[in-house]
Amino acid sequence: MRIVMVGLGRMGYNMSVRLVKGGHRVVGCDRSAQALARAARAGAGQAQDLRQAAAKLKSPRLVWLMIPAGKPVWESVDALSALLSPGDMVVDGGNSHYKDAARHAQVLGRKKIAFMDVGVSGGIWGLKEGYCLMAGGAHADFKRVEPALKTLAPKHGYALMGPTGAGHFVKMVHNGVEYALMQAYAEGFELARTSPFKIDLHGLCRLWNRGSVVRSWLLELAQEAFRKDPQLKGLRGWVEDSGEGRWTVLDAIERAVPAPTITMALYERFRSRQRDSFENKVLAALRREFGGHAVHAGSAATMTRRRR
């Protein structure tokens, strides 16, 4: 296939490399000269903007967006509606909200340009292992883009989830589940670390990955992390969120679907960014006021110095 990969970050670049190795003609599109040069070394063409990228490939073309959700995607879709030809296709492979897909399909559909939303999971390991691809759109469009999906995914690693929006919806739920799984592992290892038994966490991961019901790729990644840094001393416990966990929780609220584990996992990420939260100060103050319980005076920084 003739493919333009828009966005050559960690995911877009690796996907481009996998596509090139699979025999597809790929043009990388990015504002970074360094990113373009790296893509060129991997065998991809170069384009600094969408106009230049569209001009480098004849129709029918596939333009695959791997760029931040929201305004960047909206602006790219609007621009591509004027640059592409009937019979071309645009795939949004980023972490866009599933409700945006209907609007993009409508804008491009007026020009007879197909649109698909494809949730992509695999992270930095996707180049080697392949990407799990969750597609939303028309079945005929899915069959047209299937050669690219087959190249990017491992065996049985791609599927059509339903009509437009279904791909990004499933990816949103996927990320919510990911939050909950990660939180459960984190709490379990915290318990193991504070036990009186001096448990080797790397060895525990390795053991659990051999036949245990909690074995998983995430646990394999934890095993590797503990191998490199057994006490994770090189890390700060600050955990960001990509936004899809928030969307999952909001969608659960809209549908009145109970999702307490995913919701609490999201809140724990928020908590990780608070060094000395006002919330906890209020709790300490209330215990002191109603029960005369002892409190620790001073800031978190002061307490850290005292413990040292």
Q: How would you describe the overall organization of this protein?
A:
By secondary structure, this protein is of the alpha/beta class. The protein has helices at 10-21, 33-41, 50-56, 71-83, 100-109, 126-129, 139-152, 166-193, 201-208, 217-228, 244-255, 260-272, 278-291, 300-307; strands at 2-6, 25-29, 45-47, 62-65, 89-92, 114-121, 132-136, 158-162. It has an 8-stranded mixed beta sheet, with helices on both faces. Helix 2 (33-41) links the parallel strand 2 and strand 3 (45-47). Helix 8 (166-193) packs across helix 11, helix 8 crosses helix 12 (260-272) and helix 9 (201-208) packs antiparallel against helix 10. It is globular. The N and C termini lie far apart (61 Å).
- Alpha-beta content class: alpha/beta
Shape: globular
Assign a percent range to the helix content: 40-55%
Q: Can you summarize the main beta sheet?
A: 8 strands, mixed
Low-confidence runs (pLDDT<50, min 5 residues)?
A: 301-308
H-E string: EHEHEHEHEHEHEHEHHHHHHH
The order of strands across the largest sheet is 3-2-1-4-5-6-7-8
Alpha-carbon distance between the two ends: 61 Å
The overall pLDDT, averaged over residues, is 93
